[in-house]
Amino acid sequence: MSDTRRRVKVYTLNEDRQWDDRGTGHVSSTFVERLKGISLLVRAESDGSLLLESKISPNTAYQKQQDTLIVWSEADNYDLALSFQEKAGCDEIWEKICQVQGKDPALDITQDPIDESEEERFEEIPETSHLVELPPCELSRLEEIADLVTSVLSSPIRREKLALALMSEGYIKKLLGLFRVCEDLDNREGLHHLYEIVRGVLFLNKAALFEVMFSDDCIMDVVGCLEYDPALVQPKRHREFLTKTAKFKEVIPITDSELRQKIHQTYRVQYIQDIILPTPSVFEENFLSTLTSFIFFNKVEIVSMLQEDEKFLTEVFAQLTDEATEDGKRRELVNFVKEFCAFSQTLQPQNRDAFFKTLANLGILPALEIVMGMDDLQVRAAATDIFSYLVEFSPSMVREFVMQEPQQTDDDVLLINVVIKQMICDSDPELGGAVQLMGLLRTLIDPENMLASTNKTEKTEFLSFFYKYCMHVLTAPLLANTAHDKNSKDLQEGSAKINPVCPDNFQTAQLLALILELLTFCVEHHTYHIKTYIMNKDLLRRVLVLMNSKHTFLALCALRFMRRIIGLKDEYYNRYIIKGNLFEPVINALLDNGTRYNLLNSAIIELFEFIKVEDVKSLIAHIVDNFYKALESIEYVQTFKGLKGRYEQEKDRQSQRLSRYRRDARSMDEDEELWFNDDDDDDDGEAVEKSRMEDDFSDSYGKYIEAKKGAANGANGANNNGKAAVIPPASPALTPNNSSTSSVKTVALPATPVVKTALVGLVDYPDDEDEEEEEEEEEEEQSPRKRPRLSS
């Protein structure tokens, strides 16, 4: 395969003249635009990241060694090496390098060494070009063998050669034979040397050696060698644990012998890596990468083999859901499925998809619904882990199952309600399980992972389902622990503060904090559904009871819930808060906190600062009108003075707007009053001036009456606004700034009976019949100046 042929390790020479392993990947030669030339690229096999990008320079001396190694120098004191898994891959890249430099691929070096230092540098690795000669496998030579194995670990090239030598001569089995001899003779010195040898062989990091060492007939002897660590006074008893203590449980008999052998091997190798071998140092962290890969691929193979055995999995789920299954058996079945799901995490994404779809088809979710409601804590914990794997894999799959459940009268049987109740009833003092379940619930109700493209109605349908059937279960502990404050909304401002019974139990407080965290998430992401729920249940009032809790973290959770609501700047919420006087518990908490400078103090002030900065007018007016006297003494921040300032500014704006509105509407009254006053005071004045004023008023008044008649007729027609719009702008009752308001008033008046009382602020006139009579009288000799004022 080309992947295997191109598989390489990248090494760099450090300051101590030792080769450092930079990682394993796959090499290619391609043109790189940025470097403007053919370059060597190595991408890591683990994550595809770039391990090496090196332009093939015409003047760089490349050296081919031992058929699988290419070495060169990038710059002063920076040497690089590529160690190929296969000779064919090395030859292929070597030919490309020679092609770029115009050299003969038959040569082992592309440039002649220029100076002695380079010669020395390249001579360092060729020392190991010959095969490593292993001493005879005898008891008397164990110390020599141990020294050899330990000495090669610092050199990648010598490690490669030693691994080849160990494989070619069947050396491993001979060493393990010596182990049995040493143990029979109780030869502690020999056993200590064998520990160093076997540990060193593992650090050679060679899969071919692992295949031999971890075979059925060798692995227990390997474990035995690793028991005799020279640093320990007494050897460990790992073999005793693996053979007697650790029991392999077949919940359903496994008929495939190869599968059974693979499971045994994987468990033992994992034990060697996790328990026996010491944690590798920084310099040894890459030595066991192949061991990790060995375990990884074993797990993949196990999952694949189990998944293909349909009879086995079908039997597992049949027994899991069978009421007749004994509790002990069911516990083993659940633990098996949990382990099975854990192994599946090693699969590639497409294979993992197929794996979980297989589980879904076999009925994993109905089975979980049964076992999560059981009393056995171990079973519930394992079922929770399985559920978490499913939710992380596909929240939509879980949601689809939940909504397809038959809607029985008892909501307790619903899977989500079972999860919520398990969260509420978690017996762990630290609520570890509840925290995990809360995270899963959040994932399920998160609209961000509801795929609109797949199912456009998923979000609406699921949230409607959740709020109808599940939300009351989630909020039940919250409502139960705040029930004593039902009548607090009837308290008058300044009355004695009621301290309802708040949960003083730390575990209950933690649970309520988790529920509040989830509700706060809902406020942010479920605008419509949660708003309706909060209004119907008066939920915010109940939550704010927790501001009295002695647990500050719970009071902060309650405050955070209110802060998210206010942060939406939704007037429906604002009116709800104002109507319920829901700032009172927050302000009481601030005042009770006194001069302490703590998180609660800062969080409450930040709430009011937000209202001030965002200029939420309705809340500002409510706070200043009701609570400013209690808050005005707080001067270490300017927040409350700022709220008062905003309030005053808005009040001034309203006053100016009202006065301008009134002035515009009453302008005709004022003109008439001035005219009458002038008429009374200046009866003996100049006739010319009086005549001019009479003519002006007569003209204006006549136009206004015509406009009123037009508006009255228009009220019975189809286009009120059109009729109102013909009122001449010269009329004192209409100004360009207030034309819409005046037109509305003008149109609306004739449609209703008018009470003849003095009107304040707006000009008003009797109905159209009176106006028509007045117009007929106006044709007679009565002068406009002598006509009495309407509604005066």
From TrEMBL:
Residues 5-101 form the PP4R3 EVH1-like domain. GO terms for cellular component: nucleoplasm; protein phosphatase 4 complex. Pfam families: EVH1_PP4R3, PP4R3. Residues 672-695, 726-745, 762-792 are annotated as: Disordered. GO terms for biological process: DNA damage response. Residues 734-745 have a biased composition (Polar residues). Coiled coil: none annotated. Residues 672-686, 765-781 have a biased composition (Acidic residues). PANTHER family: ATP SYNTHASE GAMMA-RELATED, SERINE_THREONINE-PROTEIN PHOSPHATASE 4 REGULATORY SUBUNIT 3B. Regulatory subunit of serine/threonine-protein phosphatase 4. This is Serine/threonine-protein phosphatase 4 regulatory subunit 3. It comes from Zoarces viviparus (Viviparous eelpout).
